[in-house]
Design goal:
alpha/beta; 6-stranded mixed β-sheet; two-stranded antiparallel ribbon; 20 helices; 8 strands; 56% helix
Length: 480
Amino acid sequence: MRKIKLEYILLGLILIFALFLRLYSLSHSPLWIDESTSSMASKMILEKGIPVFDSGTVYSRAYVFHYTEAFFLLFGINDFNARLASVLFGMLTIVLVYFIGKEYSRSGGIISALFFSVFYLEVFFSRQARFYQLFQLMFFLCLYLLYKSGETKNKKHHTIYLILSLVAFFIALDTQLAALVLAPFIILHIILYNKHKYLAILPAVPLVMKFLPATKLSSGSAQSAVNYTDSYYSFTVNMQYLLILFIPGVIWSFIQKKKLTLMLVIPSLVLLIGIFSLQVFALRYAYFFVFILVLYSSLLLAFLYEKYGNIMLITIICVLIIPSNFVFPFTYVNVIKPINYNHGYSDFSTPETNYLVVPSDLVTKLENKNNILVSFFSSDVEWYIRKPDYVIPFSMDGRGTDQISYNKTLNGVLTSEQVDTYSGAKILTPETPLKKPYYVNADSFSTSKLKPAQRESFDKLILGCGTAYSAVDLKIYSCA
C-alpha cells in the first residue's frame, strides 16, 4: 500500500513539473504559421459555430482539436489560451505512457512518465496551438485500449475498451489522415481477439473510402524517400543515444509483452516509412514516432533498475541530466530549465513571423482600416493585426505558384471572385488597380517561395516604397 501511494505521489510530482514546463512563458513566442491558421479556425468557431474562414472555406480537419481550442479561447483571444489545448493533450500523453509502462514492469510507468515529461519534443509540441500532440495521444491510446480489450476477461470491460479504442481511432483520423494506417490492425485484432466481430466494419469504412486519396500523397519516388529519410535522420544527431537504448529496449519489452510490443511498434514503423515517401518534408509529420522511441528507451532503464537495484538510479539521473539544457543549452534532449521559445529556431519546417516585436505605433497604423494593407500569408497577420485588404498569391510548400487563391463561397455557392482561402481578402494580381498609399507585409517564409515572375511583380509593387520595419523574418514597406 505504501509503495502504491509513493508511486502516485511521484506521478503527481512529475505531472506538476511537466505542467510547469509546458505553461512557462507559453505566450512568449509568436505563433508559427500553422498555429495561426488553427487559431483563426478556432476563432471562427466562436464567431460562426463552425471553422469556416471568411472566404467560405471550411477548415475541415482536426475538429476535436479546434473545438477544444475554441473552448479555451472563450477565456480570451490570445496566444496563451490558443496553446492550452495542446498543453492538456500533452499532460494526458504522460498519463497514457504511465499506464503503458506499467504493463511492462513495476517501475516502467514512473520512469517512462519522467522521461516523457522532460523530453524536448514532447515539451515543444505540447506548447503549440496545433494538433500534432493530439494525434500522437490518440494514435497510441487507440492501440493501448485495443490491446486491453483483448486481454481483459471482464465482458463489460472488453466492450468498453473496444468502443473507446474505436473512438480514439476516429479522433486520430479526424486529426490526421495518417491514422488510416491503424485501420487494418484494428480490423485484424477485432477478428482475432474481440467478440463483437461486426464492429470491424467501422474502421473498414474509412479504409475503403480514403485509402486511394491517401496514396496520392506519396511522391512515388524512391530517391525522394531516401532523401527525406536522411533529412529526418539529421534531426536525431543530438539524441542518437536514444536510438541505441531503443533497440535493446524493444527486444526486452518484446520478451515481456510480445503482443503489446508488436501492436505499438509495427503500426508506428509502417506509418514512419509512409511519411518518408510524402511529397513534402516536415519534422512534425514524424513527431508521433517519438512516443515509442522514448517509451522503449525508458523501459530499458526500468528493466535494468529492477534487475540491478538502486545502483541504476545513478545511471537514470545521468541520462536525465547530462543531455539536458542544464549541460547543453543548444543541443539538449531533456528540458530541465524552463524554456520560453518554440522549436522553430532549429526546425526550418515550422517558420514563424514575429509580429509581437513590431513597433506599436506601426501596428496602430496597420490596424487602421483607412490604410490599405497588403500581405502574403494572412493568418498571422489577421491574428495579430487585422484582415489584410489584399493578399499576394504564392505557394505554401514551394510546389506550383499559387496555393492560396480560392473562389469565394457565398451561401454555399461558389462565385467567380478570387480571394485568399484563409482570410477571404481579395487576391492581388498584376492587373489589380492598386494605387498608393498602402503598406506591404513581406514575411520571409512567403517571399522565399516566389517564382521569378512573381518576384518581378513584387519588386514593382514595392518600387519607391520606404521600409517601415525590417527584420530577418519580416519586412514592412510603406508605400506613400
